[in-house]
Amino acid sequence: MPFELKTIPGENLARIRGWGKDDFASTLAAMRAVAEDPRLLPDMPVLMDARELDYLATPPEVSNLAAPNAMPMLFGRHRLAILVRRGAQFGVARVFAAKAESAGAQVEVFAEEALALAWLKGER
């Protein structure tokens, strides 16, 4: 599974890293597994680093991933900052974020880690 969750004791932040080749089914399964991990505490902000992930979801897959029932333990319980490469990955992630936000999630997309962390910490 090309996703891993890391938490650092004393840091109120979960870090998810995705890498390598993937597809819709394995991405959804991996994200559901991460969302159910007991280290991911309720209301803990999440930084998802997808810069090394080679998978780009198709428009129907984006809609399915952003649906409220796709990852209910992740949506609505966590602020999610997605860190991506510029270009196509950024565009796909923005569409995902817009769809997820309309379903009640708090999601933003960033190309710079410092900006993502500032948003998660509530800094503007």
Polypeptide structure, described:
The chain has a single domain (3-120), classed as 2-Layer Sandwich (Transcription Regulator spoIIAA). It is 35% helix and 24% strand. The chain has four helices and five strands; from the N terminus they run E-E-H-E-H-E-H-E-H. The chain has helices at 24-35, 59-66, 88-102, 113-120; strands at 3-7, 14-20, 46-53, 79-83, 106-110. The chain has a five-stranded mixed beta sheet with strand order 1-2-3-4-5, with helices on both faces. Helix 1 (24-35) links the parallel strand 2 (14-20) and strand 3. The protein is globular, with a radius of gyration of 13 Å. The N and C termini lie far apart (34 Å). The model has no long low-confidence stretch (mean pLDDT 89).
How many angstroms does the end-to-end distance come to?
34 Å
SSE topology string = EEHEHEHEH
Shape: globular
Task: Report on the biggest sheet.
Answer: 5 strands, mixed
Strand order of the largest sheet: 1-2-3-4-5
Tell me what the CATH architecture is: 2-Layer Sandwich
Unreliable stretches, pLDDT < 50, 5 or more residues?
A: none
User: What is the CATH topology classification name?
Assistant: Transcription Regulator spoIIAA
Which percent range fits the helix content? 25-40%
What integer is the average pLDDT?
89
- How many independent structural domains? 1
Q: Which features does this protein show?
A:
alpha/beta; 124 residues; Transcription Regulator spoIIAA; 4 helices
Fold blueprint:
Blueprint: E1 3-7, E2 14-20, H1 24-35, E3 46-53, H2 59-66, E4 79-83, H3 88-102, E5 106-110, H4 113-120
Parallel strand pairs: 2-3, 3-4, 4-5
Antiparallel strand pairs: 1-2
Helix pairs in contact: 2-3
